[in-house]
Amino acid sequence: MTVEVSAHSAHPTGKPAGRIRQKNEEAIIQAAEDEFARHGFKGTSMNTIAQNVGLPKANLHYYFSNKLGLYQAVLANILELWDSTFNSLTVDDDPAEALARYIRAKLEFSRRNPKASRIYAMEVISGGENLSQLLNQDYLTWFRGRAAVFEAWSAAGKMDPVDPVHLIFLLWGSTQHYADFASQICRVTGRSRLNKQDFEIAGDNLVRIILKGCGLTPPTA
Amino acid sequence: MTVEVSAHSAHPTGKPAGRIRQKNEEAIIQAAEDEFARHGFKGTSMNTIAQNVGLPKANLHYYFSNKLGLYQAVLANILELWDSTFNSLTVDDDPAEALARYIRAKLEFSRRNPKASRIYAMEVISGGENLSQLLNQDYLTWFRGRAAVFEAWSAAGKMDPVDPVHLIFLLWGSTQHYADFASQICRVTGRSRLNKQDFEIAGDNLVRIILKGCGLTPPTA
DNA sequence: GTCTATACGTTGATAGAC
DNA sequence: GTCTATCAACGTATAGAC
Which nucleotide's C1' is closest to B68 (Cα)? Predict the structure, then answer.
């Protein structure tokens, strides 16, 4: 789950990362994710992270310039993971198939990386100022590009004329919900945790409703 | 927005709340909402709240037993507001009309009470342990009752046989998104803030897609 | 590279003057 | 009822021994 991060670290030494450094940085980031996902940036303490990694807290400051640096490394890690997960969704794709694939991929991301989703959600809720620096132009390009694809599909009569921007928000909101609100979902359904099958059922329902709602016929039906 | 709270306060004196007490408690809760909505429970400091109300922080401890007491008063306030906003949605309702009304009401709640939505979201993401005590049996009753309504509609052929539980999650996730992820929506759309018209457009799209996706004909179409 | 010791501000909370 | 003064605990961060 944790990919190469030294290059994005707040400690740009230029040197190739040593084995020990790389191992410790990864362990710290992993432990930091646990805390940030539960308490957000302000609510997380370096002390607790250090205890969870099993390192003296001074080491955290050795590997990462400060708390904000560690947090941004975690965020960068998440965005990188994000980028590597989602394919492009182009005009040439079959609308129904591409939309279904995207919904299921995003749900699978929520299932496999619930902490990443929650850290991201907390950051956005908190105003998202730490994302401004990290979300590069590619991000806006992705968003506008996908909106353009939906618009092109609509114009070509391949799907209903839905507002492409709000369609993206519908996809994001409905899939992200299964990561961020998992504790509530478990509460109301009486489950202890959501398993793979739960996510598949959720995916089936989302795909069916959203595709039909956009005037598309599900690929498997 | 802030309703009678003394009855739920952590300071159950039994006495009728004095005018000064009532005014101060409301002011404190309002200021507390600002901070909790941005930083969650752990990330919020009593000091900052006190400064924002313009009171010495000792007063906060006079009106509320401690930080957790203040937080739970805020949560109770939110749930009360929630309860008073949403009507029941019964089997006898017209499915299309009732669903559309619910979607628009929930969106309107997101628009008018973004802070309440965010505090609630942060609490759920953090594990929601403070909600266990507050979400009474009525809550589960509401959830199962609505799921039963959707199931009855499906059984009667009034709508497609969608999974009722996941339909509720779709409604929650897609509407809550406009409160919690507002900062991201503003970023990608280039807006400074979402106005009433934005929410109406969002509502139109959600109603169109979800209703059609469930095999319902929109009431206005 | 790694850890101990520590500096120093901020936290939640309280005691007690007014 | 209200506020000033204060406490112990915890926060981030650093200096410097090993």
Answer: C12
Residue A88 pLDDT more than 90? no
B47 vs A contacts (CB less than 8 Å)? none
Q: What is the pLDDT along chain B (221 residues), one digit of tens a residue?
A: 444 444 344 444 445 568 899 999 999 999 999 999 999 999 999 999 999 999 999 999 999 999 999 999 999 999 999 988 887 899 999 999 999 999 999 999 999 999 999 999 999 999 999 999 898 888 899 999 999 999 999 999 999 999 999 999 999 999 999 999 999 999 999 999 999 999 999 999 999 999 999 999 988 65
Residue B202: closest CA among B163, B160, B174, B166: B174
Between A54-58, A133-137, A173-177, B161-165, the lowest mean confidence (pLDDT) is in A133-137
Structure tokens at A73: 């490394």
DSSP A93-115: S-HHHHHHHHHHHHHHHHHH-HH
CB atoms within 10 A of CB A191: 12
Residue B83, judged by CB atoms within 10 A of its CB (0-12, 13-18, 19+), counts as exposed
The sign one gets for the Cα dihedral B48, B52, B54, B55 is negative
What's the first-to-final CA gap in chain A, in angstroms? 34
- DSSP-derived secondary structure letter, A127: T
CA nearest B129 in A: which residue? A183
Q: Shortest CA distance to B134 belongs to which of B61, B82, B170, B89?
A: B82
Which range among A124-133, A167-176, B134-143 shows the weakest confidence by mean pLDDT? B134-143
Residue keyed to tokens 């802030």: B2
Contact assessment for residue B200 and residue B146, using Cβ atoms and an 8 Å cutoff: no
Residue A156's identity, in one-letter code, is A
- Cα A94 to chain centroid, rounded: 25
Return positions of chain D under 7 A from a protein CB: 1-5, 10-16
**C-alpha neighbours within 13 Å on the C-beta side of residue A128:** 18
Structure tokens at A128: 């998202």
The Å distance, CA of B115 to C1' of D1, is 31
A166 neighbors B206 (Cβ within 8 angstroms): yes
Report yes or no: B209 and A213 within 8 Å, Cβ to Cβ.
Answer: yes
Task: Check CB contact under 8 Å for A124 and B183.
Answer: yes
Amino acid at A124: V
CA of B103 to C1' of D2 (A): 47
In chain B the domains, ranked by start, together with CATH numbers, are 14-65 (1.10.10.60), 74-221 (1.10.357.10)
pTM summary value:
0.93
